[in-house]
Design goal:
One of its GO terms (cellular component) is plasma membrane. It is found in: Cell membrane. InterPro entries: MFS, MFS_dom, MFS_trans_sf. Keywords: Membrane, Transmembrane, Transmembrane helix, Transport. Its main location: membrane. The protein has about 450 residues and is mostly helical. The chain has two domains: about 400 residues, Up-down Bundle (Growth Hormone, Chain: A), CATH 1.20.1250.20; about 55 residues. About 80% of the residues lie in helices and about 0% in strands. Helix 1 runs parallel beside helix 8.
Length: about 450
């Protein structure tokens, strides 16, 4: 079947992209609402954090099902299921007047996001012509990379008015996306009557839940952290064993036998941790160290997020015309400069310098992130593309949760209530150093992956 860029393809990407954007933007938008919500609901930091941690846990558990769901159900039915769940979750949060109800709404939203995220990339990889893959994947990455960066701005502006508006405005966007998707999403492949490997799903859920809870427990209880860590390891061992002995595995692990795919995926995971980690540290730095309010902190981070959004599809065009190496390494170069600048100035940085550092950081994100994912997915056969897409999207969400947990832990370990401002600056500097070291590891992994790229372009057009 010859692939063409049609109006319905663009509208399908728009509909699924808006849904994924809504799901991701709330992740970091909620961070700036925590002080307000803690006061209103009279709960601790550890409790309020579950609004994000619980959400990411649900997303991480649902996304591994994406390969099975794509083969078993039509794209439109998956879109309708995801939209319905997300809209129900938004309605609950829009009217929530206690913590339990708000958390329930967030968990339901997580189910919708878990279905929605892989859907967008599956449509692009399955229906877009080869010469447009980079550009359209760039647009897809605009959602997954820029939404976390826009979150603090979006949340910071609205929490000053009424935090319920964070959900109410997204509800309007979701209804709009629902109508577009129902009209535009088209099925181009036959569904298959396959069975779900429930044991593998439970095993991978235990791994993700255990790993995230282990990092979240380090500060309060080393014993609990070890217990959760053991659960995570056992879950991973069980998942690997079951996948290797199943005729219809949840995720075909043979994708990890491709060195270029695995190296690029590893670099991508670290890249996501950098994005979410910085989205956690910088709003805290601006509000605590620079003493700006949440709305001003959000506005200071807006230029960087906007530039990242603009560059994502442009860098995809560069991928189509020049290949992956140049745009990816340009982006990595920007991020090296940004994190080094933030590290050396962390103790005394004024707000405008934080803004400049974030602009450079998001320039790097716009150039590199989508192209890393596109390059990685180009390394698996057409039959294994859903598995590769599931791996990227699942581990991206897991990396987001992990990045937030680690950045939060490093900052919290440095903070001292007797000198909160100075100790927060110290903690931020430690975070920037950690992120810089992680970036160097990502650069090595990504360039090793790029050096091993193989030409698999024929698998896209079938």
């Amino acid at each position: 079947m010859e692939r063409k860029v049609s109006k319905k393809l663009y509208l399908s990407i728009l509909a699924t992209g808006l849904m994924a954007f809504c799901g991701i933007v709330i992740e970091t938008a909620m961070n700036v609402t925590f002080p307000t919500l803690m006061d209103q609901f009279n709960v601790t930091t550890g409790t309020i954090q579950w609004l994000t941690t619980g959400y990411l846990l649900i997303v991480s558990v649902i996304i591994p099902l994406s390969g099975f769901l794509k083969r078993r159900f039509t794209l439109k039915s998956l879109f309708l299921a995801a939209s319905t769940l997300f809209i129900i979750g938004l309605i609950i949060c829009s009217f929530a007047n206690n913590f339990s109800l708000l958390l329930a709404g967030r968990l339901i939203q997580g189910m919708g996001t878990g279905i929605a995220l892989p859907l967008m990339f599956n449509i692009i990889l399955e229906q877009a012509p080869l010469q447009k893959i980079g550009f359209l994947m760039g647009i897809g990455t605009l959602v997954t990379a820029v939404a976390p960066a826009l979150g603090p701005t979006y949340g910071g502006l609205l929490v000053a008015v009424n935090w319920h508006l964070i959900f109410i405005l997204l509800l309007i966007v979701m209804v709009f996306a629902l109508f577009i998707g129902v009209y535009a999403i088209t099925q181009v492949t036959e569904t298959e009557k396959i069975k779900l490997d429930i044991i593998s799903w439970i095993s991978v859920a235990l791994f993700f839940a255990g790993a995230i809870l282990a990092f979240n427990s380090i500060e309060s209880s080393i014993t609990n952290a070890v217990i959760f860590g053991v659960i995570a390891i056992l879950g991973l061992i069980a998942f690997t064993w079951k996948s290797n002995h199943s005729t219809s595995p949840l995720v075909n692990l043979s994708i990890f036998k491709v060195p270029s795919f695995s190296l690029l995926l590893f670099g991508f995971i670290i890249f996501q941790m950098l994005i979410v980690g910085s989205a956690f540290v910088l709003p805290n730095y601006l509000q605590i160290v620079n003493q700006v309010n949440s709305a001003a902190a959000g506005l200071l981070l807006l230029p960087g997020a906007a530039l990242g959004a603009v560059l994502a599809p442009i860098s995809g065009k560069l991928y189509d015309n020049l290949g992956p190496r140049k745009p990816i390494n340009i982006g990595l170069g920007f991020q090296v400069v940004a994190l080094f600048l933030l590290f050396i100035t962390a103790m005394t940085a004024p707000a405008w310098l934080i803004m400049v550092g974030y602009i450079l950081f998001m320039l790097g994100t716009g150039f590199a992130m989508g192209n890393i994912m596109t390059s990685g997915l180009s390394q698996v056969t057409k039959e294994l593309t859903p598995d590769g897409n599931a791996a990227f999207n699942t581990l991206q969400q897991f990396a987001g949760a992990l990045g937030t947990a680690i950045a939060s832990l490093v900052l919290a370990l440095s903070q001292d209530k007797s000198d909160y401002l100075h100790s927060t600056a110290v903690g931020a500097q430690h975070d920037f150093l950690m992120l810089f070291i992680m970036l160097i590891v990502a650069i090595i992994s990504i360039n090793m992956g790029l050096s091993k790229l193989r030409d698999f372009s024929e698998k896209i057009d079938g």
